[in-house]
Design brief:
- The strands form 3 sheets. Strands 3-7-6-5-4 form a 5-stranded antiparallel beta sheet, covered by helices on one side. The protein has a 4-stranded antiparallel beta sheet with strand order 8-9-10-11, with helices on one face. The chain has a two-stranded parallel sheet with strand order 1-2.
- It has helices at residues 9-12, 15-20, 58-71, 115-121, 154-168, 179-193, 196-199, 243-251, 259-266, 280-285; strands at 2-3, 26-27, 41-49, 77-79, 83-86, 89-99, 102-110, 129-131, 206-214, 217-226, 229-236.
- Strand 5 (83-86) and strand 6 form a beta hairpin.
- The radius of gyration is 22 Å and the shape is elongated.
- It has 2 domains: 2-199, BirA Bifunctional Protein, domain 2; 206-285, Enolase-like, domain 1, CATH 3.30.390.
- It is an alpha+beta fold.
Length: 288
């Protein structure tokens, strides 16, 4: 899963499903909404220089994709919210990032992605989170592979797209990264783009309200988080708070709203006996 720069990672995804299915989440540098990535998804990127203040142009950068698909016999259109559509169904999301006189435009193409997983990972109710983050616009989607003739698979699709772009942009040149550049890319990825602080902690300040059943008793809680750190956690639902919930309420504030970190805390001696009926990992997942 990939969320936009200004989104709340928890509000945009089904965190419990991601956790149980070992699906990674990444935050990109550009804005916009959440998109799903797997081995059946194709990504394309344009990086160009231009005039400051006149760089953002989604139609300019999606038009080559539309023309490419037209050549393959598929009529597609540019839709609202920076998406590409086939018969009203979305197959591509696009976003841009501008720095001085340079613009980066990148987009996705659902070729033969697992649409079942796509629906599961975004199946989360927004109303439980209160924040000022950018919200994704949900849309009905489709894969392109069943619609295309003369394309043997995703690699063939990519090869054809590369050839088309080389013809479409007359001044395009193939560029080979140097070993030094590859090392810098890996360093940047490890130091920033693979960190929890960027992917989750960068989310805007938010409040989470949720009700769930704990040991057969309805429990409601309110979680207040800023810069990825729990500022306040309160439980309601019992006259005398359950010992485990009381300890969570006392010890979690000041820690990252991070599943792995909170799991470390409850694995300390003394916590297990506080929860004789519930799996502690499942209890923690209710806090996301």
């Amino acid at each position: 899963m990939v969320v936009g720069k200004h989104q709340n990672a928890w509000a945009e995804t089904n965190f419990e499903y991601l956790q149980k299915n070992n699906i990674d989440l990444a935050r990109r540098l550009s804005g916009g909404g959440t998109v799903y990535h797997d081995q059946g998804n194709v990504n394309f990127t344009f990086i160009m220089n231009g005039e400051e203040g006149n760089l953002v142009d989604f139609k300019r950068f999606t038009l080559p994709v539309i023309h490419f698909l037209e050549k393959l016999g598929l009529h597609t259109t540019f839709g609202g919210h920076n998406s590409l559509l086939y018969n009203g169904l979305k197959f591509s999301g696009n976003a841009e990032h501008v720095f001085k006189r340079r613009v980066l435009h990148h987009g996705t193409i659902l070729f033969n992605a697992d649409l079942g997983k796509l629906h599961e990972v975004i199946n989360t109710p927004f109303q439980q989170y209160t924040d000022k983050a950018v919200k994704s616009v949900r849309a009905s989607v489709t894969n392109l592979q069943p619609l295309l003739k003369g394309v043997s698979g995703i690699e063939d699709f990519i090869d054809k797209m590369v050839v088309f772009f080389h013809d479409y942009f007359q001044d395009i040149e193939k560029y080979q990264y140097t070993e030094e550049e590859e090392a810098r890319v890996k360093s940047l990825a490890n130091d920033k783009y693979r960190t929890w602080e960027w992917n989750y902690g960068y989310s805007p300040k938010y409040t989470l309200n949720r009700t769930f059943s704990y040991n057969g008793i309805p429990v409601s809680f309110k979680l207040e988080v800023k810069r990825g750190v729990i500022e306040k956690l309160t439980f309601q639902g019992e006259e005398a708070p359950d010992p485990l919930l009381q300890k969570i309420m006392e010890e979690f504030p000041g820690n990252q709203h991070r599943y792995g970190k909170l799991l470390e805390i409850v694995r300390k001696p003394g916590w297990i006996r506080l929860s004789s009926k519930e799996n502690l990992g499942d209890v923690l997942l209710k806090l996301f």
